[in-house]
Amino acid sequence: MGKSGADLGVVAGLVRASFLVNAVYAESAREYGLTVQQGQLLCVLMGRPYGMGDLGATLGLEKSSLTGLVDRAVRRGLVRREPDPDDRRAVHVLLTEEGGELAEDFYAATCRRVDELAARLSPPERDRLGALLGTIVHENQAPTVFLDALQP
Amino acid sequence: MGKSGADLGVVAGLVRASFLVNAVYAESAREYGLTVQQGQLLCVLMGRPYGMGDLGATLGLEKSSLTGLVDRAVRRGLVRREPDPDDRRAVHVLLTEEGGELAEDFYAATCRRVDELAARLSPPERDRLGALLGTIVHENQAPTVFLDALQP
DNA sequence: TGTGCTATGTTCGTAGTGCGAACTAACTGG
DNA sequence: CCAGTTAGTTCGCACTACGAACATAGCACA
């Protein structure tokens, strides 16, 4: 039962909040001269190197889409392809030094902006929200597209 | 303080949950032969007609981006431009009958899928999550990109 | 040992996205 | 009537995303 007209159902809440997060991503990307997809790529690769296959699965992209994304990131010096020593078909995609630094900056800027979205929540509310979203993320096996920052 | 390792901070929770929502949008769009952006356009226009300017502000797009999006939607018969009687420069963009039906279907499918993301939450948890996200949405003046379904 | 089958990536063509700059037309205020 | 603003469009560009077709490389197994 909705009480006051002010609170949304879970569904609209999730969709609209995700719209805000998308906007944050776009802003951060713009700030660092990246596209949103390149920013996302950097964030994923912050965790560890990936093969093209895993990377596609993680980002939810077809392999054919990925080739171009990685190509452009390589051309910008953000990322590098390295042959897999155990499988001559496969490659590992990993951050270059420049890409690593940019990833850190982009990640930090995005964290800051997302954090600001929740600025008006009290600490316990933030914990509660984190826990609830954590449940959703885990139940749906959301890939690690964004690392969890260490909470101080 | 995180207790078990299972729960995320608010920031990562929001980002990863929004990744799930984006995937849902992509799935629903695919189901109905739309692009994500077209689906979003239909959802916005479910509420009411918009001028190009308002529409750009709502979707977070430059007007030049919008022209093409609306053009393609017009070409597919989903949407229609109507002259503004009070201002001969301006137009109103609104759903055609076909677009309205498709919008309903797309909206319903998306609601269903997003709802499923939260399937493992108990009713009180869902209420709590809806309230917390509602706060974020309102504090940040997120535009009405997705209508709130009536809770039964 | 070879002979198919599968897995990993790339290439190519196509449609769509999103931006800024430049533009046209129409409204607004002296 | 003229200057300045506002609403939308056009254009060129880079990027995104897909599927189909392709080339290699690994794998299974007779």
Keywords, please?
3 strands; mainly alpha; disordered N terminus; homodimer; globular; 61% helix; 6 helices; DNA-binding; 152 residues; 8% strand; 3-stranded antiparallel sheet
Describe the overall structure.
The structure is a homodimer of 152-residue chains. Chain A has helices at residues 10-31, 36-47, 52-59, 63-75, 97-117, 123-139, and strands spanning 50-51, 79-83, 91-95. The longest helix of chain A is centred in the N-terminal third of the chain and has 22 residues, at 10-31. The radius of gyration of chain A is 18 Å and the shape is globular. The relative contact order of chain A is 0.13. In chain A, a hairpin with a 7-residue loop joins strand 2 and strand 3 (91-95). A 3-stranded antiparallel beta sheet of chain A has the order 1-3-2. Chain A has 6 helices and 3 strands. In chain A, helix 1 packs across helix 5 and helix 2 crosses helix 5. With 152 residues, chain A is mainly alpha-helical. The interface between A and B is large, with 55 and 55 residues.
